Amino acid sequence: MTTLAPPPTSSPSSRHRAAPPADGGFVARGRRLVTGPAEDPRWTRPALWAILLAATALYAWNITSISGNSFYNAAVYSGTKSWKAFFFGALDSGGFITVDKPPFALWVMGLSARALGFGTWQLALPMVAVGTGSVALLHRMVKRDFGPVAATVAALALALTPITVAINRDTNPDPILVFLMLLGAAGLFKAVRTGRLMPLVWSAVAIGFAFNTKMMQAYVVLPAFFLVYLWAAHGSLGRRIRHLAVATTALVVSSAWWMVVVDLIPASSRPYIGGSTDNTVWDLVIGYNGFGRIFGASSSVGSAGNGASFGGSAGVYRLFNEITGGQISWLIPFAAIALIAGLILRGRAPRTDAKRAALMLWGGWFVLHYLTFALAEGTFHPYYVTAMAPGIAALAGAGGVTLYQAFREGSAATGAPPARAESRARGRGWVLPAAVATSAAWAIVLLQRVSGSGTLYTVAEIVVGVTGTVAVLGLLAGRFTRREGLIGFAALAAVVALLAGPAAYSVSAATSATNGTNPTAGPSTGGGMGGMGGAPGGASGSSRTSGTGGRSMDEPPSGGGSAPSGSDTRPSGSETGSGRTGGGQAGGGQMGGGGTQVSSAMITYLKKHQDGATWLLAVATDQTASSIILESGQPVISMGGWSGSDNAMTLAKLKSLVKSGKLHYVIVSSDGGQGTNSEIATWVKTHGTAVKSSAYSSGSSSTTSSSTSSTSSTSSTGGLYRLDASDVG
């Protein structure tokens, strides 16, 4: 008689879980979401949740004190007051001029503000969400091809990239740009694996939406996308080419639809396109937000080399300089070594090899962004480099695991007979220690630059030095002793050494007041000259600010809105009471502030005497207009765009607005400005009535005085003027 043995009673492996019942129920799916797939090691999903929680904490810490970028904040506020302003991305709810970017990021923040009320935490909340989502997306993509260890390192590296932490705590459009580009990469990887068309089409659509977030910057990764699909996707060459043709069509449609709609609308029925030279979105695409950024040739930006004022002079070493280096360059040496070694190691793999395709994509992402940002002659701000962070982080994880595997093969070959293959394997074993040593040494250099800036950076320098030394010596010892425990411990020490510096900068970014217009992480390095007016983000006088970014505003703009208590919608440099509210003077002497302080008292006066006009005031630049919009809650005209050089306002248009009663007040500069603005300034001074500062200062009963007889300093050197229909004639 045969006795059947009972089933095994041993517990599942400590590394993997038993597969859950295949009932596909809600509970099973929820358990899978929390604990991860059964085939993953037990630690994988808890580690991911811990990283996502840490990322969210860094991005959202003290979120109610985030000031954000007043330029975009004002446009979002205007969009909550007018659906027309919402669609066009207008700076003011009256719809006079748009911001100099397409509106998709404004739409996302605007919907949040309409749903939750207007305030900077409501605007920053979507940025926190997409920032954390980007970390999760990168983890998913790297894990599929390189496993959970590589995915965990990549996700942690992205979450702790200093400039990524800083920009995800802001209201600039870059976090949404990065998230959409990663969605495009996810679609591309699926298309490469399956050879199917639709994932490639959705990848193109995601990049199209990224284009409608920050225009040509979204296209930096496209050469890598096209090359990877053409080289590595399944299917014949003809099939791959046809798929790329269809995807290109989807890319063009999803990118150009808003531009085409806007440019087909008569100029008289829509806002002026800020940043353009001819009032078209197409000009904005190829000029200010296109070739002007690369060659510095856009008339709105200025001459070549303008970017040196913010991120250092153009050149291959720009991303390692004292302004930008601490924001992004920590892992660049390791990523570069891992990319080169990884491609060599996968050189004999089949054409459709998924790991090589992934290295090609992330390597292309990294290299294309590096060259674009390093060599750009136009306006360049350090926070732009957050777009290259996913490529660097992915290479740190995927490339790091590839180097680790090569190291173990080299260690196993040590002491073996000197066959040619074994000799090559032993040579590969030196790459990982060299990469760790190089990157740790560079981290020490970066931390030495800010020595004396605080205990946090001193501790980080010590940690990098100790763990970097332990990692390199441990790897070298493990190479010859072939002790697995020692090698694993050394690899863990290497991860700590490479991420300790970025972590210190990231904690600083999350716990310190930041400049919402030009955010950076870490201590001040003297970067970011102010007053250039080249593009949003150019008003910063330093890379960090103090004392003002955390000030709360206990009530919404007085013109309306519903900003909850504690939401600060003003720029970090604004003041209440009798101080300035961002009364920035027009760049280059353009018509505008002219030294006139736009105080809260003046705003109160203007609102009292608005007399039903659509716009409260006309000023020279976006900086001044956005600050007054947020302070007053009323539409304000920016006559010259960001730098004061846009031809948005003409004399004929000004006369029409005044004659129709839509505008009564204009601020002109002391020198009258240049070009068309000079003509406008002369006409305003000749026909308008100068408003003395005593009209809105404390204890004054005076209102206005004739511009020809006034002795007020503001009327003789520029300042505030009242215009009525009778002044037009």
Descriptive labels:
elongated, 2 domains, 729 residues, transferase, mainly alpha, 28 helices, transmembrane, 4-amino-4-deoxy-L-arabinose transferase
What shape does the CA trace take? Answer: elongated
**Main beta-sheet strand count, sense and barrel state:** 3 strands, antiparallel
Query: On the 0-100 scale, what is the average pLDDT?
Result: 82
- Structural class of the secondary structure composition? mainly alpha
Strand order of the largest sheet: 3-5-4
How many structural domains can be distinguished in the coordinates? Answer: 2
- Given the structure, what is the number of helices? 28
Helix content: 40-55%
How many beta-strand runs?
A: 5
Pfam families: PMT_2, YkcB_C
Region (Disordered): 1-25, 511-595, 693-729
GO cellular component, one term: plasma membrane
Domain Glycosyltransferase RgtA/B/C/D-like: 100-258
General description of the model:
By secondary structure, this protein is mainly alpha-helical. The protein has two domains: 44-511, no CATH class; 587-728, no CATH class. It contains 28 helices and five strands. The strands form two sheets. The protein has a three-stranded antiparallel β-sheet with strand order 3-5-4. It has a two-stranded parallel sheet with strand order 1-2. Helix 11 (222-232) runs antiparallel to helix 17. The longest helix has 28 residues, at 237-264. The termini are far apart.
